[in-house]
Amino acid sequence: MKTHYTAKEIAVAMGITERAALDMAKRGDWPSQKRPGRGGPNEYPLTSLPSKAQKFLAGQHLDTLASDLPVPRQKAAVPVPITAVIPELTALTKHQVVVMDARVWFMRLIEQRPAGQSIKKTNKQLAQKIAAGEQPYAQ
Question: pLDDT tens, 49-100?
């Protein structure tokens, strides 16, 4: 856990401007140190900060630790059975039967694609063959 924070980090923790945090540090005569190995602003020890800032920064540290933990795997969702009402084939119109047959034919072509070939690539090839007249619709 960090022990020292910049005025900018303190300002975010307290919901104030950086300038206000610097003024508070000056008025409160907070001890400070130069950032080790880096230039830039002074850092103030966590113990010298107001309690509101200390609680926020400590909570922020716990959130960071929690985000570093591995996320437990979720169990795979169980597929929900289809409960749609399927009408009898005799109740379908001629157009509905043709559409149904075309969809089944299309799905069979996709299932017969070469091993390792993506469905997207198979769809593109089928569309090109149908457009060129090379792949007639066969029932």
Answer: 777 777 777 766 545 544 545 556 667 677 777 777 777 877 888 898 888 8
Strand partners, 49: none
Cβ atoms of 73 and 81 closer than 8 Å: no
Number of Cβ atoms within 10 Å of the Cβ of 10: 26
> Would you call 34 helix, strand, or coil by DSSP?
strand
Distance CA 6, CA 8 (A): 5
Give the Cα-Cα-Cα angle 43, 47, 53 (nearest 5 degrees): 80
Contacts of 29 (CB under 8 A, 6+ apart): none
The model carries a pTM of 0.40
* Contact in structure between 61 and 1 (CB atoms under 8 Å): yes
pLDDT at 41 over 50: yes
Q: Which two tokens stand for residue 117?
A: 């070939």
Q: Which 3 state secondary structure label does DSSP give 54?
A: helix
